[in-house]
Amino acid sequence: MRKTFVAAGGAAVVMSVWIGLGGAGAGTTLSPVAVLAAADTPRVTFAKDVAPIFQARCQTCHHPGTVAPMSLMSYEETRPWARSIKDRVARREMPPWHLDTSVGIQSFKNDISLTPDQIATIVAWVDAGAPLGDPKDLPKPLTFRDEEWTIGQPDLIVSLPKPDVVYANGPDWWVDRIVEVNLPEDKYIKAVETRVMGAGRKVTHHAIATLIQEEDARTVGGGSSADGAITDVNEGTYLSEYAVGKYGETFPDGSGRIIKKGAKVRLNMHYHAIGQEVPSMTKVGFVFYPKENPPTHFLTDVFPHENDTIDIPPGAVTRTDAYYRLPKNARIASFQPHMHIRGKAMCMEAIHLNGSKETLSCVDRWDFNWHVMYTYNDDVAPLLPAGTMLHLIAIHDNTAANRRNPDPTIWVGWGQRSIDDMAAAHIGTEFLSDADFQKQVAERKAKLASSTSNNQNQ
Ligand code: HEC
């Protein structure tokens, strides 16, 4: 089932994605792990083996009062979902970490994936009839603090002027709300979080906060212009996003984003009606660096994207390429693909100055429900000199085998609606001076030399 995409006209293997996992064959054995596990594992129980995994990897989302369809807190709540759990876990769709684990950088700050052993345990448990085991083995229950900021108490909270009232029935609704911030001076953001409050989470598909402000010399190259050109007023630098399961972001010490005096926040809302009228309120919280201790590095968002050449005929699997040439030396902090319903997979590669290519990361099970920002660990975050080309390869699947496909018989091109599509990525980037870049490269080399690990760095 493994299919390899080869660059047109060249022998280089650019990417590989799993094809067909979303197909009609659901219910067949899905992974070699599952086969092995069924053979000769000692009896696996919920109490002893599975509950600790669910505490570590599932319950943050699957507890009462969240957007997730069911709670996985207790055995009684979990048992009816056993088959579905096996299916989602074996396909690596749950937890939502859709990274291709066979290629590219594999060390992330926010990795919530299950290990192959954990997957085997869950699959073996379901195959054994999903037994409870001895209740005395159950771990102490976790408690969750909902309705709190995950970034801590914000220094500043910016809200929609009033809740958007989402009608009971109607088409998806996209709306931009511009919110004045009225800062008296520039501030440095240490942490930022976009939150949809209470009942609004049932109808809010996403809320993307962008900053509308003058470009700052310290973050030149950000924004969405493909060549990193400086624009006077940024059309909107990505700031933070609420999407199902996506929480706030706290930047590493010494790193931050700039919010300038006079900045405005644009909240791009995407609502989805659910049969009852729901008022929805969204807020953005900021934690700032103290004035006397500003960050030395500034994180910005580069957004390679291709609109015009997205051409997805009925029944086709297509490839779209997008490019962004780094205008300065850079440290790549994170990768967040952006496609819509027919999105299937995306790779980000670096085309180095000598022409060689390096795959940095691939997502092979793109799922439009999820907007995961894959945040590299500091010791593997790519360090790339000015002039390096970032290259996105987006795969869209408009066949019936894509089980989310609403209609494989129509042509699809670029557009804002979720039934149109996109080929883009938010790439968290710190631009570095030559001296800083050389220093970080030297430190990285020294670290690599002293370790035996063979990772993805230059
Ligand atoms: C980041 C939040 C999050 C985490 C972590 C998470 N889930 Fe989910 N899960 C969801 C949401 C939201 C949905 C519904 C949307 C979807 O299907 O993508 C869902 C859907 C599911 C479904 C499908 C339910 C159905 O309708 O059939 C299963 C099964 C599931 N999750 C199991 C798990 C298991 C098991 C884990 C841990 C190993 C886990 N999830 C971790 C949020 C999460």
Main attributes of the structure:
458 residues; alpha+beta; Jelly Rolls; 3 domains; ten-stranded mixed β-sheet; four-stranded antiparallel β-sheet; 31% strand; globular; disordered N terminus; binds heme C
Describe the structure.
By secondary structure, the protein is α+β, with helices and mostly antiparallel strands. It has three domains: 31-137, no CATH class; 156-296, Jelly Rolls; 303-450, Jelly Rolls, CATH 2.60.120. The chain has six helices and 22 strands. The chain has helices spanning 32-40, 46-57, 75-78, 82-90, 116-127, 434-450; strands at residues 2-6, 13-18, 156-159, 164-166, 173-180, 187-196, 204-212, 237-243, 249-250, 255-259, 264-271, 278-280, 282-288, 297-302, 317-325, 329-338, 343-351, 357-363, 374-375, 383-384, 389-397, 424-432. Helix 1 (32-40) packs across helix 5 (116-127) and helix 2 (46-57) packs across helix 5. It is globular, with a radius of gyration of 23 Å. The site of heme C has 22 residues, from helix 2 and helix 4.
User: Percent helix among the residues?
Assistant: 10-25%
Bound molecules: heme C
Radius of gyration: 23 Å
The span between the termini is: 32 Å
Described by strand count, sense and barrel closure, the largest sheet is: 10 strands, mixed
CATH architecture of the largest domain: Sandwich
Q: What is the CATH class name of the largest domain?
A: Mainly Beta
Number of strands: 22
Number of helices: 6
- Shape call: globular
Question: How many domains would you count in the coordinates?
Answer: 3
Approximately how much beta-strand content do the residues carry? 25-35%
- List the uncertain runs: 1-39, 222-234
> Could you state the order of secondary-structure elements as H and E?
EEHHHHHEEEEEEEEEEEEEEEEEEEEH
Report the CATH topology name of the largest domain: Jelly Rolls
- Helix/strand class: alpha+beta
Overall mean pLDDT score? Answer: 84
